[in-house]
Amino acid sequence: MKKFRLKALVTALAVSSLALTSSFASQAVVDQISSQIEVNYSIIDNHAASNGVDCSGLGADWGSCNMTMLKLKNTGALIDSSDWEIYFHSIRQILKVENEAFKITHITGDLHKLEPTDKFKGFPANAETDISVVVEYWQIFQTDVLPRWYVSSTDAKAKVIKNTDTEDLSAFSSPIPEGQWKRTLDDNNILMTSSSRFDKNADVALVTKENLRGNIIPTPLEVSIHTKNADLSKGITLKLTQTKAHAQALSAEAQQALEQRFEMLGIAINPKGYPISLNHDAAAFSGKMAVSGGYTLAITSKGATVTGFDSAGLFYGVQSILSLISLNDPKEIATLDAKDAPRFEYRGVFLDVGRNFNSKAAVLRLLDQMGAYKLNKFHFHLSDDEGWRIEIPGLPELTDIGSKRCHDLTEMTCLLPQLGSGPNSDNMGSGYFSRADYIEIVKYANARQIEVIPEIDMPAHARAAVVSMEARFQNLSKQGLNEQANEYRLLDPADTSNTTSVQFYDRKSYLNPCLDSSKNFVNKVIKEIAAMHIEAGQALKTWHFGGDEAKNIRFGNGYQDINSAEKVAGKGSIDQSKEDKPWAKSESCQALVKQGIVADVDHLSSYFAIEVSKMVDAHGIEKMQAWQDGLKDAKDSKAFATKRVGVNFWDTVYWGGSDSVNEWANKGFEITISNPDYVYFDFPYEVNPNESGYYWGTRFNDERKVFAFAPNNMPQNAETSVDRDGNNFSSVSDKDWPGAQGISGQTWSEVIRTDYQRDYMFYPRLLSLAERAWHRAPWELDYVKGKEFKGGETTYVDKAQLNKDWVIFANTIGQRELAKLDSAGINYRLPLPGAKLIAGVLETNLALPGLSIEYSLDNKDWLIYNNKAKPTITGDVWVRTVSPDGKRFSRVEKVDKP
Prior knowledge:
The protein has 898 residues and is α/β, with parallel strands linked by helices.
């Protein structure tokens, strides 16, 4: 017996030693590849289908694909091991690998795995290995490439490949070649270079400060500017009317928020300073002034008086005084009289922290700027496939697992990496707001007259929740706690549906809407978040259901069944017999179909929205809101239990949105205009590959385009903008239009990983959003049923007035507002200079006049550009814009040769 035990012990030690040796060897390979291999990602041909590649046969949506070259350069000794896997992120599907030594496997979402085949002979020392791949769609902006490729191996710790561990994408990706910036060969957009930008800015002249005197952003309904100035050099004091009613009208927290902004702008709070009297008198308002946020303002040399319809009116009246302050001038403002009220009840900003996380400090900075520019709805996207971002008492798995991303293929401890986050849980894709954090955010928003609207996206885009609750189920089941394990489970274990979500996840992307446990989960989350709002002093008034994109993209119009007898040219051919609609094989959902509760599984998203609305109503929440496609199968707004039902309308105008928006409004839904082609701030500012963002809805949304948007007369926009491919379009609707409730600017975060990047995408176009949300311009026409606007043909819009207004607005931003953003620590985008060499002289301009421009003859040493002494240039020259505080610069651009 002793000999047997000794033999077993020796055997166990030998196996353990072998495993340890193997683990050390695996880690050595990972360490070697991560430190020696350098990645280079190069776009070769964005028009591959036009150049002989069978994109349709490879199954590409609408037969669109591109050729890309992956270069793996070994900077050290030979790597001959095959015991490795390189994981990388690609928002585009990899359709084909044209190097037989490698294969690429799609894991989930954007995560792919590159690994060797039996043809792999190693990475030669100090040599490059080329891997040509065919990729779906096109890649025309730098941010189509994602960072933090990483290496893994059996029993080894994953490590990021060194040259990809950066936010400087040029460190591992080549510039997009000339001509490849076009989405298609007949793309008619204008590439923004120094010369084309100069032409675009030609009608935006620098105006004098006197022409900007008394300007308030956003523009008031009525304003009369006087000749004298008010002196704020001794500071200001806010004097509230001491009545019970008024004490309720402006909280101490709101007053503190206003005083903090004065101090940020260099104006002291001084009891003996310039007096600003605040009076609450709702009875003094009537007509269009008698709405929340309405105010009158009288500024004299001796003091100012704000009379508000409500607390928001008082707050906004003071913000208008703050708007007049310039950090570049003496501490004085114009005297004036103003009457003002918002055009829209809903003036929103949408922030996605689900895809990539942002700090609490960044959220609070955003709320500060929303308050300053009179934006009042903070749509907080707290969950998505890639992350769950709010603590829910009683469901710790949501944050323990769903808020983290790391390399755990079982996903029992975290979600798999996505969107360039890398393999470690301390990455830019991980993080959440604690209960205390969220309460603080709501309090902060409330003091700035902002309603927080939480969104928990469902039934699609729910993967973070689904995976978290599956881990919960597994852990509790192992403990024999079966009832608790099933209480909040979000998957039907019998559902084997083969589905592909919009962002390439499988059935775990969809919460099952037919399970009682799913309803338990939703009710629990609503209850806990509503309790946080109560504790924060702002009752939860609106619940956002999400609801978007609950579909299998393989059934989209750009695909066709490979087995079909009649093929359509230009569509991707796939085997659709292997594809399922979401929940098609769920027994629970099929039971609802058989019972006649829903007509088809296609209707389940709207069915679930109605069910959730009952819970929302039961919690005393007045309104439910959703992305419009999530409610598409509901007859009208009366199908829902809540008193009010709103939709974020996100069809593009040029694809028929000017007509379909009317259908939703006429069904009784409150419409929040959220069109991607105008107010998606995760889209690029201009058509240039070096800009950032997604671009499926338009190639650019700059400050001027947002400013020119007519949200309450959709067809009008055909005269002032172009479609995604730079073409004119026509727009008309034969339906009645009761009007929008408001407008919202969206910033989704798939390719926004840092607070800095978020600021860049939000600002300064957020100011244009605020202008259109608050003020209706005289060139915005009334909607007329049946009136057709044709880009390049009709001339109904007064473009002269539009351009005149834009020049003043652009100068106000450039000469005054950007300095305030500097002071607030906002890393906004600086506009690149337009520049031309005309007869050898450097001519420059800016979209936002008033900023300084610098030029360089060697791209190293920089000189201030003086418009009164323009330099003569004989060789190359580069230009850049400087922030008002002199601390930041725009992207550098070489000036085009004549």
